[in-house]
Amino acid sequence: MTGGAQGIGEAIGRGLAAQGATVALVDIDLDLAESVAADIRHAGGDATAHFVDLADRDSVNSMVETVLQRHGNIHALINNGGLDAQPGLASDIDATHWNTLIDTDLSGQWWCTQAVLPNMKARGYGRIIFMSSSSIYIGGRTISPAYLAAKAGLVGLTVGLASQLEESGILVNCLMPGPTGNTGTPMDPEDVPVYLAEHPLGFGGTQPLVDSVRYLLDSTGDWVSGAIHNVSGGRLRGR
């Protein structure tokens, strides 16, 4: 579980641990990840914490090696880590802004996936889930095009990997979250009434995403591959 120290990643990690899964919480904020892992263990679950810088391929490879040494196998990889939606006008995007978002939110997900594939292929089993964003179909006046490009790239990565890995017993899918209301960059207070008027399901919190991950990792997801799951509370319709 990358990005497992807070927000959606923390919620998914806690939810899976509560169902008996052994969870490796991976994050650039190791202290926070260790705090969450300790809390899970205190509640009777099984969790460890590990450092990773997703923009650094060597860091990713070292993290996966450590997780394998600690746990033996990797049953599922949930690629949730990354930078939240960043502001940025197209005219102001420089190389540092572009590279930071692409390296962290797209390339980092691929480095993680590539690193776990040998173990999954050797076992003939694996589940990989990417976390994209409903914003890629909507855009925004202040959302950086680099962020949207990275998140859109995860959809292509899902489709490409799924078509090549199914024969190895590895299923790859992607979640398309909407605003949870309690994670990520807060919505401008002036925009909240407008959003709620157009989206009567409101903000769903993290639980719908936890439930979606459980569905894909359980036997219920054994015939689901290359799917882009719309978990947006009506923010996206017709997709």
UniProtKB/TrEMBL annotation:
- Please verify whether the record's keywords include Ribonucleoprotein: no
Entry-linked SUPFAM superfamilies:
NAD(P)-binding Rossmann-fold domains
Q: State the signal peptide span.
A: none
Keyword annotations for this protein?
Oxidoreductase, Plasmid
A Gene Ontology molecular function term for this protein is: oxidoreductase activity, acting on the CH-OH group of donors, NAD or NADP as acceptor
Q: Which CDD domains match?
A: SDR_c
Gene3D superfamilies in the cross-refs: NAD(P)-binding Rossmann-like Domain
Q: Give the superkingdom in one word.
A: Bacteria
One Pfam assignment: adh_short
What InterPro entries does the entry give?
NAD(P)-bd_dom_sf, SDR_fam
Family affiliation: Belongs to the short-chain dehydrogenases/reductases (SDR) family.
Which PANTHER family did the record assign?
3-OXOACYL-[ACYL-CARRIER-PROTEIN] REDUCTASE, SHORT-CHAIN DEHYDROGENASES/REDUCTASES FAMILY MEMBER
> Per its record, how is this protein called by name?
SDR family oxidoreductase
Taxonomic source organism: Rhodococcus qingshengii JCM 15477
| Upper classification of the organism | Bacteria, Bacillati, Actinomycetota, Actinomycetes, Mycobacteriales
